[in-house]
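Shift notes (night). Ran inorganic diphosphatase while the centrifuge was going.
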Amino acid sequence: MPAYAVGHKVPDSDSICSAIALSYLKTTLGEETVAARLGELSPETLYILDKFGFEQPELKLSYAGEELYIVDHSDRIQGPDDIDDATILGIIDHHKLGDITTSTPLECWIRPVGCTGTIIKMMYDFHQVEIPVNIAGALMCAILSDTVIFKSPTCTTADIKCVEALAEIAGIDDHLALGMEMFKVKSAVEGTPVRELVMRDFKDFNMGGNKVGIGQLEVIDLALFDNMKDELQADIAAVKAEGERHSVILLLTDIMKEGSELLVVSDNDDLTEKAYGAATVDGRVWIDGIMSRKKQVVPPLQDSLA
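Came back to this:
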C-alpha cells in the first residue's frame, strides 16, 4: 500500500503543489507515495495544474489505517478528521507548530519561510533528486502565490532564490508576470457564489478553546468587492453559526495597496481592537500592511484569546 501526501482542508495552491511534489520525491527515493486532497480546488490552483499538465490529486477524506505525510499544516483541526487513526510519517510545513502528535518517530521539515513549496525544494536538493520541469513550475507558482509575489512579510530570501531556480528549471522567462497572471485568475470573483468565496481559502483554528475561522481573498483591486461586502458579511455570520464558531474573520487583501479590510463576526465586540489595536465599524476595519494570515493575523489574535 502506498503512503499519502496530503495538505489541509480547503486546500490552496501550496497545499496541493507541495503534496504532488513530495509524492514524486518520496516515490523516487523508493517509498511509493500518492498525492491526495481534502477538498475542492480554487480557480488559481486549477490554473496552475492545467498550465503544467497535472491531473487533480485524488479526493480522499478518510485515512484510518493509512500512512501519510502532512504538508502545509500541523493543526489537527485542519487535517483529516480521522488523523488519530493514521500513521503520520512526516510533517512538512511553514506555519506555527500545531497540536498534531504521534506515537512513533517521524520526519519533520518545518522552516520559517513563505511557502511549504520552498521547503520541498530544499528536500529535493538535500536528497540530490532532479526536479522535473512540470513540478518545478508548480512549486514556483505555489511560492509566488503564498508570498503574494514576494510582497508578503512571510517572504524570505530562500523563497526568492527558490523561485528563481525553479523558474530556470521550468523554462519560465518572467516569473513575476506569471505571478500577476495567477492573481488575475484569483481576482475573478464576479459571478462566484458568496459561500464559495468565503470558503475559498478558509482555515479553522483552536484559540484558547475557541473555534475561530479565518478566510482570505487576495485580489489586485479591493473595489471588486464593493457590491458584495454586505453579502459576504451576512455569509460569514452564517458560517459562524453553522460551525458553532466563536469568531469568523474574512480578510479582503489588496495586493497592490498592501493591506487588508477585515470583515468580522465575533462573540467579542472588541476582538480586533484587542488583537490589532484597530476597532471595527459595522463589523469592518481596514488595516494597512496586513497581508499574511499566518504571520500578522493569527499570532496576535491567538494571544488575545488565550
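Residues 87 and 104 are 8 Å apart (CA to CA). The chain has ten helices and eleven strands.
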